[in-house]
Amino acid sequence: MNALSEAVSRIEPCLLDEARGTLLDLLAEIPAAASRLGARLHPKTAASLAALVRVMNCYYSNLIEGHNTRPRDIERALANDFDIDETRRNLQLEARAHIRIQEVIDAEAAAGTLADPASLDFLLRLHGEFYRDAPGAMLLIEGPGRSFRMVPGMLRNDPLHDVAVGRHVPPGSDSVARFMTCFSERYSQRKLSTSRRLLAIPAAHHRFNHIHPFPDGNGRVSRLMSHAMAHHAGIGAHGLWSISRGLARGIAGRSEYKSMMDHADSPRQGDLAGRGNLSERALTDFSEWFLQVCLDQIRFMEELFDIDGLSSRIARYAQLKEWRPEASRLLVEVLHRGEIARGDVATITGLGERTARDLLALLLRDGVLGSSSEKGRVGLRFTVDAQDILLPRLFSES
């Protein structure tokens, strides 16, 4: 690498000076759509849906990495039920780590304690937590002329860690710490207004991967970082949508994410092509595409989680199960209330006490209702087994 290529100015421009045209429209439309998403749902119902969204986010994030981990296997991993096949078990471990981290991010966002997602401490924590429970085989990085064990939560710091990503050659390991210090300063959330935070999400997503700060796991960390940044930008919608689904699917095709990331790597062409080392026009194109993906996903989830549509599909679920008609009435009532006391089942359904208890036991066994304790209040559970009916097209590739 020559001195110029290793200067931190290599990742400039980090931020677009202003938004015009399509970008300006997206900066207005995305917050409005995010504010509508789940607005009519009871918080308890929204929390149950968010748990399934985390499984979905993990599924699509894995798909981007070329790993088709079945949603049911991810759900098994959350219950500590692992496959005997080592490869599938390792994918389950990754999935469990991903969901655990996102759950913490969502909880900290709700509590107002979420750290700056661009800070180096936060990013090191993401990487360290993701690989915390990984077996040694998952940490072993091998390739032509190199073999080493990755340390969770540690930046690239050895020439063995350096690698080309497609046609892109990231900064050398001896420069990564400087680049990440620059990254954290340029994307510091406290320095940005709410709209600028939204505009910064696609730029930070690309520039993080352009630096490629870790030996492995950069894509997963960048998508979790973008999820956290969405919360800071006020469009997190309580965890009810996922950027990973959009990136995996694209707008017109599944190859778009890779091609748009490659496009954003383009160097500046001449003095009229913006400022900095990288193309400002390419960053604008990538930002427009990325934010359009965000808007498409928020709108998809808004339609999917519409309470009237959910009510109809929940009633149909009970009918397809051939349960007694009172089951539909009970499930729809729980949807609206968020959760109910077990003793309320008889009142809601009009059934006798014993019949009501039997119906409740049936729904608990099915998994469509659940409780945090043996005698506690019950609420809806949106399981992978039920999602084809309750939430169609959520895992359309599965």
Provide structural commentary.
The chain has 398 residues and is mainly alpha-helical. It folds into two domains: 19-304, Fido-like domain (Fic-like fold, Orthogonal Bundle); 307-390, Winged helix-like DNA-binding domain superfamily/Winged helix DNA-binding domain (Arc Repressor Mutant, subunit A, Orthogonal Bundle). The protein contains 17 helices and five strands. The strands form two sheets. Strands 3-5-4 form a three-stranded antiparallel beta sheet, with helices on both faces. The protein has a two-stranded antiparallel sheet with strand order 1-2. Helix 2 (43-64) packs parallel to helix 10 (243-249), helix 5 (120-130) packs across helix 9 and helix 10 packs across helix 12 (280-304). The protein is globular and about 75 Å long. The two termini are 43 Å apart.
Keywords:
2 domains; 3-stranded antiparallel β-sheet; 398 residues; mainly alpha; Arc Repressor Mutant, subunit A; Fic-like fold
Write a brief caption for the model.
The protein has 398 residues and is mainly alpha-helical.
